[in-house]
Design a protein that fits this description.
CATH topology of the largest domain: Nucleotidyltransferase, domain 5
Structural class: alpha/beta
Number of strands: 21
Largest sheet: 7 strands, mixed
Strand order of the largest sheet: 17-18-16-15-19-20-21
Number of helices: 19
Shape: globular
CATH architecture of the largest domain: 2-Layer Sandwich
CATH class of the largest domain: Alpha Beta
Distance between the termini: 54 Å
CATH superfamily of the largest domain: ATPase, nucleotide binding domain
């Protein structure tokens, strides 16, 4: 009998429990539980509803037991956010959402203690106010009593694993997103944390993707009727799991993990941390097998998702398909935004912010939904082009194909625009890249699949990809000159 694993895949707006098996040379997946992930604003602070999410994990485990059982559990989530545990092992408060405004201005305050260039060259991580190091600096400067009460900091997947097993560990791939990791030693950058007066006791021992946190606790097993199985540390950052699922047989490949965020990058044996990578604000995150995900975090489908939420709030029941049609009907290349501008980070009226950005930068101001959507789509595609050039320049490598993976590949317009803007063939799939990568690492850990290369061969055989060729590259070449001025 082949092993059966249970993957919990958390995104910014929803989560799923998926049973995975390996048979007939393919990975087979069955979604058994889906739930919303709804952040909660409490007195001006944006929180993750972590207790509700843990309840949903329990629901998924119960359904998996009723579906015939499982041999292991793996959990992946977003990066940077964390829960704090006190000395009695209790969660101090609900983790704060990375889109909360508390870290606005924190980067400049940290740079007063650790200069910007030094922080980059020591960590190799792209600067963003949401990074864990800036969240911790905020607490130390503004709520030191919270850190004083805390005994352990656990990133979101590590926190869920702790609640299931009672074991506090930090999985390397996700730790690498925090800007608190020393990529040379592969351990916490304690000397930098000391300079910010962040207590060393908070940081748990590290484990690698494929290792085990521990077994399900007796309490959980008794409550849910679950088997006492290992909770495996997959590549617990969702992008780390997604990159495991890139169906490439080539050593050098480039990918866009496309969802709420667009993660555009490549996989390297070693990090690249130099003046050129600093200039492009490229990041070095950990991958399975302690590889490096050399990439740029780009504001992705969040721009479309939050715009749609605003129009629904205004009484317009528009679907994503409706918005895509309206974008296609609008005149091309009228205006652009920089998708990564601070204006677009927080929830709110994104369409209005797009209009204000265009007005402020002296461009045509989009007048209706279709024009706003066209602006967002084309700006994302142009940002892909900008990043593609940056990665080729810094690595010195050429790439013949872009692998687009994740739920965003269902958006055919974006896939085609990516091919046009980058003047490169695009292979789209797998759609369920993150869950597939989560399951693959568990199956490797259990001996069902040999290694990462074998997993990628299996994944390539498990789903039929879609292909996109450049069709309007010359038009994008001409328009890109205007977009580049906004970077």
């Amino acid at each position: 009998m082949s092993k059966r694993v249970l993957a919990f895949d958390f995104g910014a707006s929803s989560g799923r429990a998926i049973l995975g098996t390996f048979a007939d040379g393919k990975i087979h997946m069955e979604e058994i539980h889906r739930f919303s992930n709804d952040p909660v604003n409490i007195r001006g602070v944006f929180h993750w509803d972590v207790l509700r999410l843990f309840h949903e994990i329990k629901q998924g485990i119960t359904k998996a037991v009723h579906a015939g059982g499982f041999d292991a559990i793996g959990i992946d989530t977003w990066g940077v956010d964390f829960g704090l545990i006190d000395k009695k092992g209790h969660l101090i408060n609900n983790p704060v959402h990375y889109r909360d405004t508390r870290t606005i201005g924190m980067m400049d305050k940290v740079f007063e203690t650790i200069p910007k260039e030094e922080l980059y060259h020591r960590t190799g991580i792209q600067f963003a106010a949401l990074n864990t190091i800036f969240q911790l600096a905020y607490l130390q400067m503004n709520e030191p009593e919270v850190l004083a009460q805390a005994d352990k900091l656990l990133l979101m997947p590590d926190l869920f694993a702790y609640l299931l097993t009672g074991v506090a560990r930090a999985e390397y791939c996700n730790v690498s997103t925090t800007q608190c990791l020393d990529p040379v030693t592969g351990d916490w950058a304690y000397d930098l944390l000391d300079r910010l007066q962040i207590p060393r006791r908070l940081f748990s021992p590290m484990i690698d993707a494929g290792e085990t946190y521990g077994l399900l606790s007796d309490e959980i097993c008794e409550e849910l009727g679950a088997p006492k199985v290992p909770v495996i540390a997959v590549s617990t950052h969702d992008t780390g799991s997604a990159v495991v699922a890139v169906p490439s047989s080539e050593k050098d490949f480039i990918f866009i993990s496309c969802g709420t965020w667009s993660l555009f990058g490549t996989e390297l044996a070693q990090p690249i941390i130099n003046d050129a990578s600093f200039g492009f604000n490229l990041t070095n995150e950990g991958g399975y097998g302690r590889t490096t995900r050399f990439l740029k975090n780009i504001m992705g489908l969040w721009l479309i998702q939050e715009s749609r939420r605003q129009w629904i709030r205004e009484g317009f029941d528009v679907s994503y398909a409706d918005l895509e049609k309206e974008a296609l009907a609008a005149k091309p290349f009228q205006c652009f935004i920089n998708p990564d501008d601070d204006d677009f980070v927080s929830p709110g009226n994104l369409p209005k912010r797009v209009q204000e950005y265009c007005r402020r930068t002296g461009q045509y101001v989009p007048q209706n939904r279709g024009e706003i959507m066209r602006c967002i789509y084309e700006s994302l595609a142009m940002k892909y082009r900008y990043t593609f050039r940056a990665i080729r320049e810094v690595t010195g490598l050429e790439y013949n194909t872009i692998h687009m993976i994740g739920g965003g590949t269902k958006d055919r317009l974006l896939c085609q625009m990516a091919a046009d803007a980058c003047n490169t063939n695009v292979i789209a799939g797998p759609i369920e890249a993150t869950a597939t990568g989560n399951i693959a690492v568990q199956l490797i850990a259990l001996g069902e699949i040999a290694d990462l290369a074998d997993a990628r061969r299996v994944i390539a055989a498990s789903e039929e990809p879609k292909f996109y060729e450049p069709q309007q590259a010359a038009a994008y070449d001409e328009a890109y000159v205007r977009f580049e001025k906004l970077q």
